[in-house]
């Protein structure tokens, strides 16, 4: 006796299996099912809507079969099926986020292997015996400013204001941090932000950042002036802006022939002693003010500050002491010589 | 173009951060634009598609003079995209030449990536089906039926666009009780005029002859879960509406460079791989047997048999005589080293 028809008619015992010529492709992560089977023209022409519905039903059944066999995570709101990742490639709406360029401190910390520690917002106050905010309203960093009485040092001037002193100190720390943040941001912006630096001969953007504002201003002004006279007519027929100052050349200035003998003597002696001190690098030392500009120590790649490292290694005695220590007993004599 | 905004307070910073690119993206917001003329059909289509897309849908309910396949149209779409932080458009325009045109536009990085225009030949609105509707905001299932969706570039593009519009968001888990409706996209038989679909689409935004492509049927059904012989429910579908019959019209294929950039995937972190996100990574030393159990193979190092403890026999123990000899030698050495400094001797010991 064939009972399959009878079974199918009752609600129970209906099969959830889906049999197709070509197996369906299910992308559970995307909640999508792709049916690569060709259309069946007879059934389609007989009843279009019924055919579409039956094809959709089979597809959805296959997808639901896959979804219901996924691993389940139990939550307060009922079970959640954990979906796998999407297999069908779909274009993103926005490009992948770019990694944030490291700040100068982060570079240094990485080079030294310093681990980042989370700084708590609260600090323990011994006097109050309570946790107080590190900064902000009634913050620990405003302790001196806000206390009602402050000890004044004995040698303090008459107009000494301890509150102002503490406040200025705090404000200067904030300003320093802000300056460093701006420098980090400018460095992160890349070479485009410091395009001007290339014209002034500073290839390294870090070197440009290291310059003071006045130096930068001067350099840019010099560049602008040079550009102005870089035409065939040396800028004579160029259109002038309103209120543009007239260009004047720099006049050379000489010291008077009969001047102060004492100052002349000291200047000459200073020069001689400078030559004597480091005879090999005397030519290099003449260019000392531009050392930063050459991109030596201040550059981003070399975070080690050589000067500080030497000072640390020699306990503040300098490179010469460092060299003489290796020679052994000669160190003492060498140091004496340097002091003279 | 918008200026690069530098946030001046925390609120605007949060707003900017929300717009910033994310590794795992949220669902795309779609803007539904009415063109210079939309008939009753297109208005209904836009309204019903918006109902399916809600809450990630923005309606431009006024008339806009927009031609998406022209340069000015592209620039306005890009402008709207940047203004509204929306990355998908459904544009409805009806002209004498192309009546009831529905254009799907997808953007990437603020630029239009690709477009596909379709003509609506038949539309039954959602309201005409007196059946249960799905809850707004619930994710639909998607069903595509035709081999052409895997082979023909134009239909592959259409499938990708529809998936992006309704289901592009990557989600980690889903409540099975929250599966309410399905959007089914099927193709009709090929028109009798053409034996086969044109092999490759013509480049650029040109008109392909709509008579060469099979009609597209978009149907939406709600799921009715019935009991079955197994734990998995038997599915019955009930038409929910809207129901759309479409024909393909113009299209714009994506720029290959832009497309490649848009398909870039984020690098998986170690944690993600361990949690099973990196499916492509080969499962090593693990296999599922025919009972469905996961079986692992553990590798242990080579066994050092020389250190194996055998039976302890008194005869095999080291001779006591040898030990005594060694002690004697040490005593002799001590006698000989008398004249040397004690420090040195200790060292030797």
Query: Which strand order do you get reading across the main beta sheet of chain A?
Result: 1-2
Q: What is the radius of gyration of chain A?
A: 39 Å
Q: What form of chain B results from the Cα inertia axes? A: elongated
| Low-pLDDT segments, ≥5 res of chain B | 202-206, 334-349
What is the CATH H-level superfamily of the domain at 27-263 in chain B? Brix domain
Poorly predicted regions of chain A? 193-200, 291-300, 328-340
Number of helical segments with 4 or more residues of chain A? 14
Output the structural class of chain B.
alpha+beta
DSSP strand tally of chain A? 6
Strand-residue proportion of chain B: 25-35%
Distance between the termini of chain A: 122 Å
Characterize the structure shown.
The complex is a heterodimer of chains A (340) and B (349). The longest helix of chain A is centred in the middle third of the chain and has 28 residues, at 162-189. The N and C termini of chain A lie far apart (122 Å). Among the domains of chain A are: 4-81, no CATH class; 122-147 and 163-189, no CATH class; 190-225, no CATH class; 304-340, no CATH class. Mean pLDDT of chain A is 80; it is low at 193-200, 291-300 and 328-340. Chain A contains 14 helices and six strands. In chain A, strand 3 (72-75) and strand 4 (78-82) form a beta hairpin. In chain A, helix 13 runs antiparallel to helix 14 (330-339). In chain A, the strands form three sheets. A two-stranded antiparallel sheet of chain A has the order 1-2. Chain A has a two-stranded antiparallel ribbon with strand order 3-4. Chain A has helices at 4-9, 41-46, 48-68, 104-112, 143-146, 162-189, 195-199, 205-210, 213-228, 261-277, 282-285, 306-313, 319-326, 330-339, and strands at 25-27, 32-35, 72-75, 78-82, 122-125, 130-133. Chain A is elongated and about 120 Å long. With 340 residues, chain A is mainly alpha-helical. Chain B has 349 residues and is of the alpha+beta class. Chain B has a domain at 27-263: Brix domain (Rossmann fold). Chain B has nine helices and 13 strands. In chain B, the strands form two sheets. In chain B, strands 1, 2, 3, 4, 5, 6, 8, 9, 10 and 11 form a ten-stranded mixed sheet that branches. The longest helix of chain B has 17 residues, at 320-336. Chain B is elongated. The model of chain B is unreliable at 202-206 and 334-349 (pLDDT under 50). Classes of the chains: A mainly alpha (340), B alpha+beta (349). At the A-B interface, strand 2, helix 3 and strand 4 of A face strand 4, strand 6, helix 5, strand 7 and strand 8 of B. Chain B: Residues 320-349 are annotated as: Disordered. Chain B: It is found in: Nucleus, Nucleolus.
């Amino acid at each position: 006796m064939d009972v399959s028809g009878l079974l199918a008619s009752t609600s129970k015992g209906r099969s959830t299996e889906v049999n197709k010529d070509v197996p369906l492709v299910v992308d559970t992560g995307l909640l999508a099912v792709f049916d690569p089977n060709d259309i069946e023209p007879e059934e389609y022409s007989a009843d279009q809507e019924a055919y579409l519905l039956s094809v959709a039903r089979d597809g959805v059944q296959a997808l639901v079969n896959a979804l219901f066999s996924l691993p389940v995570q139990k939550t307060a709101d009922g079970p959640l099926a954990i979906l796998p990742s999407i297999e069908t490639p779909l274009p993103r709406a926005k490009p992948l986020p770019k990694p944030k360029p490291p700040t100068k401190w982060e570079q240094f910390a990485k080079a030294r292997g310093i681990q980042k520690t989370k700084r708590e917002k609260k600090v323990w106050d011994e006097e109050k015996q309570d946790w107080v905010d590190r900064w902000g309203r009634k913050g620990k960093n405003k302790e001196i400013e806000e206390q009602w009485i402050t000890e004044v040092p004995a040698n303090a001037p008459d107009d000494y204001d301890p509150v102002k002193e503490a406040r200025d100190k705090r404000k200067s720390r904030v300003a320093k941090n802000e300056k460093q943040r701006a420098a980090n941001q400018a460095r992160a912006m890349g070479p485009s932000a410091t395009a001007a630096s290339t014209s002034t001969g500073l290839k390294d953007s870090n070197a440009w950042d290291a310059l003071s504002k006045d130096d930068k201003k001067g350099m840019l002004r010099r560049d602008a002036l040079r550009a102005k006279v870089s035409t065939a007519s040396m800028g004579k027929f160029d259109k002038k802006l309103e209120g543009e100052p007239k260009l004047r050349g720099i006049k050379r200035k000489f010291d008077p022939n009969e001047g102060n003998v004492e100052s002349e003597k000291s200047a000459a002696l200073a020069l001689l002693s400078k030559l004597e001190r480091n005879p090999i690098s005397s030519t290099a030392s003449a260019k000392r003010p531009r050392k930063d500009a050459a991109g030596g120590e201040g550059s981003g790649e070399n975070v080690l500050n050589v000067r500080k490292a030497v000072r640390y290694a020699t306990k503040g005695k300098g490179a010469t002491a460092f060299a003489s220590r290796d020679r052994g007993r000669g160190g003492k004599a060498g140091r004496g010589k340097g002091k003279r | 173009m918008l200026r690069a905004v530098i946030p001046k307070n925390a609120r605007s910073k949060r707003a900017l951060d929300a717009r910033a690119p994310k590794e795992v993206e949220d669902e795309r917001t779609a803007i539904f634009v009415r063109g210079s003329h939309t008939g009753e059909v297109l208005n209904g289509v836009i309204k019903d598609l918006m109902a399916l897309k809600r809450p990630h849908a923005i309606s431009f309910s006024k008339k806009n003079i927009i031609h998406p396949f022209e340069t000015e149209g592209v620039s306005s779409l890009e402008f709207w995209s940047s203004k509204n932080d929306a990355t998908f458009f459904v544009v409805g325009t009806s002209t004498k030449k192309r009546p009831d045109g529905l254009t799907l536009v997808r953007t990437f990085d603020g630029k239009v990536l690709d477009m596909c225009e379709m003509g609506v030949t038949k539309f039954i609105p959602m309201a005409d089906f007196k059946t249960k509707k799905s809850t707004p905001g619930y994710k639909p299932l998607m069903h595509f039926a035709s081999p052409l969706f895997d082979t023909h570039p134009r239909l592959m593009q259409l499938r990708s666009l529809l998936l992006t519009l309704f289901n592009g968001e990557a989600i980690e888990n889903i409540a099975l009780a929250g599966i309410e409706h399905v959007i089914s996209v099927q193709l009709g038989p090929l028109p009798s005029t053409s034996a086969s679909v044109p092999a490759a689409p013509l480049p650029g935004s040109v008109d392909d002859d709509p008579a060469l492509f099979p009609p597209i049927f978009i149907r939406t059904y709600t799921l009715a879960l019935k009991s079955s012989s197994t734990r998995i429910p038997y599915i019955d579908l009930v038409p929910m509406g809207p129901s759309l019959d479409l024909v393909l019209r113009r299209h714009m294929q994506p720029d290959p460079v832009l497309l490649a950039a848009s398909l870039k995937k984020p690098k998986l972190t170690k944690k993600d791989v361990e949690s099973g996100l990196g499916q492509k990574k080969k499962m090593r030393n693990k296999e599922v047997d025919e009972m469905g159990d996961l079986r692992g193979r553990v590798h242990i190092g080579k066994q050092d048999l020389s250190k194996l403890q055998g039976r302890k026999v008194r005869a095999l123990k080291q001779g006591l005589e040898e030990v005594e000899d060694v002690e004697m030698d040490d005593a002799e050495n001590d006698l000989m080293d008398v004249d040397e400094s004690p420090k040195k001797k200790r060292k030797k010991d």
